[in-house]
Amino acid sequence: MEKIVNFIKKTFNTNDFIPLHEPRFIGNEKKYLNDCIDSTFVSSVGKYVDQFEKEFASKVGSKFAIATVNGTAALHISLILADVKKDDEVITQPLTFIATCNAISYIGAKPIFVDVDLDTMGLSPDSLKNFLEINCEIINNQCINKTTKKVIKACVPMHTFGHSCRIDEIRDICDKWNIALVEDAAESLGSYYNEKHTGTFGKVGAFSFNGNKIITSGGGGVIVTDDETLAKKAKHLTTTAKVPHPFEYVHDEIGFNYRMPNLNAALLVAQLEQLDKFVENKKELALKYDDFFKTIDDIDFINQPQNSSSNYWLQAVVLKDVKTRDEFLEFTNKNGMMTRPIWKLMNELEMFENCQSSDLKNAKYLEERVVNIPSSVIL
Ligand SMILES: *Cc1c(COP(=O)(O)O)cnc(C)c1O
């Protein structure tokens, strides 16, 4: 334990407390923010929102990007774009941040949990295929859950800590079963699967720019899609469904006030300029961690899965001996650095304990053993 703490202090070159993930503002952040304030356009309209949307779409290789107030809002709207309605069902993974399941619940839909793969920590195509073959049938071009008689409208895989799940296989299975693929790419900006950016495999994808993510706008999110009709609908729904008019207030459906303020977009334009540098820095840190943990018994560093390039947003290790986890957490947190266990499984939370699920043995294994270690970009 002592050896691990010393290695991390040496790597981050400090004796001060080392947080899990700190934002870095070392580019044009202040310049663009000042410009934004001077322009007086700090709120819901302004050039930085437009500029950010254009530059983000180009960065990830999607046709359209629609900025939102946070990642949860981006997911909520993405699910609406995928035609998820009240009483529908949505397949996702139990090993995720609560926002994935909150967004599904805002619509009045219900999550179904299928297992993850051990190497990617993301939704397992094998588990998905199995679940569908055993429990579902196609009736009138819809995927019907034989147990509940409800329609399974969408599937939301998540790229855990920036490591890509087997998204191409998942897409093929979803296509076969007429299920819309909505990617929760909140953690995976800068991550690629077979050289295609995560978040761009399905109908829609959602990203987050919360304070702890690889780049941040304080709070923020974005929806990406290649479908122009969906892009227009996303803009409309996130801007209170107001019919464009120079002065009249007419709204043609119940919309949301989910737009990203120009002030946040200004910060984000500067952050996006530095994304490649941040990813490179995190990859270097991952190499150092990997080398180091090879010398430690029973602790494995989690490397990027095959066929992918990871942003290594949060670095993680697996403590193979489950009994050592709490000791590891206590020792490191007491000795000047933040470490944190992976999330409690969603199906174990009170709100979701009655949801249908597949066998979740991989998710359970990881829940008990995975710990995040300091991951900030090193200056
Ligand atoms: C961060 C995150 C979100 C969105 O979070 P916001 O804080 O609303 O921006 C969604 N899903 C996952 C998996 C996340 O990590």
Description:
This protein has two domains: 2-24 and 275-346 and 356-373, Aspartate Aminotransferase, domain 1; 29-274, 3-Layer(aba) Sandwich (Aspartate Aminotransferase, domain 2), CATH 3.40.640. Helices cover 36% and strands 16% of the residues. The chain has twelve helices and 16 strands. Helix 7 links the parallel strand 6 (152-156) and strand 7 (180-184). The mean pLDDT is 97. It binds pyridoxal-5'-phosphate. Residues 70-72, 75, 96-97, 99-100, 158, 184, 186-187, 208, 210, 221 line the site of pyridoxal-5'-phosphate.
Summarize the structure.
This protein has 379 residues and is an alpha/beta fold. The protein is 36% helix and 16% strand.
**Cofactors, ions, other ligands:** pyridoxal-5'-phosphate
Remind me, CATH topology of the largest domain? Aspartate Aminotransferase, domain 2
Order of helices and strands: HHHEHEHEHEEEHEEEEEHHHEEEHEHE
- Sheet-strand content, in percent, reads 15-25%
Termini Cα gap: 25 Å
**How does the major sheet shape up?**
7 strands, mixed
Number of helices: 12
Report the count of strand segments: 16
What's the number of domains?
A: 2
**Name of the CATH architecture of the largest domain:** 3-Layer(aba) Sandwich
Structural class estimated from helices and strands: alpha/beta
Report the CATH superfamily of the largest domain.
Type I PLP-dependent aspartate aminotransferase-like (Major domain)
* CATH class call of the largest domain: Alpha Beta
- Give, in spatial order, the strands making up the sheet with the most strands: 1-11-10-7-6-2-3
So what's the overall shape?
globular
Low-confidence stretches: none
Mean pLDDT: 97
